[in-house]
Amino acid sequence: MPIFNVSGLQLEVAIVGPANPLAPALVFLHEGLGSVSLWRGWPAQLCGQLQMPGVVYSRQGYGQSDATANVRSSSQVVHGVRQGRLKADYMHHEALTVLPRLLQGLGVQNPILIGHSDGATIALIHASHHPVAACVVMAPHVMVEDISVHAIAQARDAFIEGSLRERLAKFHADVDGAFWQWNDVWQSSEFRSFDIRKEIEGITAPLLAIQGEDDAYGTMAQIDDIASHVPHAERVKLASCGHSPHRDQPAQVNEAIAQFLSTHLS
């Protein structure tokens, strides 16, 4: 898997889909415990269906990207690279510092952002401040709900006492760092006030929000609040679907994205 240097940070990057210089690139932003490989084949499948190129990358501390040093100690920046615990604004840092540099380095302008969970929130923040062709978010977090904190506490128990660590180790070079940097910040008191509902009012690009009705990490309030603050946003609510719509309902999600992009980019 290619490694791309972003201001001294080595990030795992995969280029998928057909080469099409006339089409905007889809940029896939993974969930809190995700990585390039945890998307499995879905980005390539979607890009193939749409006949558009795609970029998939693992954030720092995930997949085969550089690990986060001292992930459970105090936060600091050493030689321009983040170390220690994630701060409550970690998704802003990714959206407004790392992602713009990565896109510039790859020569990607006006991307179509495809985000899932934490990656969906990062997509929303980026689209609030930077030009994008379109934004698709699945199971986003625009504020912190009790259901999310409870599910993440359950994930902590499954990581310590169950099989979650073993399952995640297949996808991350530093599985402990990947898990704890995500779990610790979501369980912190500082993060409970995280709220981007006012901020996303700056989104002018076409926006599609997708949520599963059986999502253990968030309720329909997430995408309903998006629609309240971004009136042009479109919503898709999926029955019999959990936190990962692209895995639980791939055909429906692919069709919804295809129709959305056809309407707004043709």
Structure commentary:
The protein is an alpha/beta fold and 266 residues long. The protein has helices at residues 42-50, 90-106, 118-129, 146-161, 164-168, 175-186, 221-229, 245-248, 250-265, and strands at residues 3-6, 9-16, 26-29, 54-57, 76-78, 81-83, 112-116, 134-138, 207-212, 234-238. The strands form 2 sheets. The protein has an 8-stranded mixed β-sheet with strand order 1-2-4-3-7-8-9-10, sandwiched between helices. Strands 5-6 form a two-stranded antiparallel ribbon. Strand 9, helix 7 and strand 10 (234-238) form a beta-alpha-beta unit. The mean pLDDT is 96.
β-strand percent reads: 15-25%
The arrangement of helices and strands along the chain is EEEHEEEHEHEHHHEHEHH
Count helical runs. 9
Global mean pLDDT: 96
What is the tally of beta strands?
A: 10
Helical content band: 25-40%
Rg estimate, integer Å? 17 Å
- What low-confidence regions span 5 or more consecutive residues with pLDDT below 50? none
Coarse structural class:
alpha/beta
Quaternary structure of the protein: single chain
Q: How far apart are the termini?
A: 33 Å
Largest sheet: 8 strands, mixed
The geometry reads as globular
Widest β-sheet, arrangement of strands: 1-2-4-3-7-8-9-10
